[in-house]
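pinging the channel bc i need a second pair of eyes. not urgent but kinda urgent?? the chain im working w is below, pasted from the shared doc
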Amino acid sequence: MNVVEYQLPLADSIIYATARLHNAVLWTQDADFKGLAGVKYFAK
């Protein structure tokens, strides 16, 4: 996985890469993650 292709800010990239590395579901209200694999996004 190359997080550069997702055009995420640095902190978001670290969060996303860590979740993917550990096969964890990332639950968030941050629209930057909307539509990414392994993410459960809920609008505010």
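so The longest strand covers residues 26-28. and The two ends are 28 Å apart (CA to CA). — does that match what u expected or am i reading it wrong
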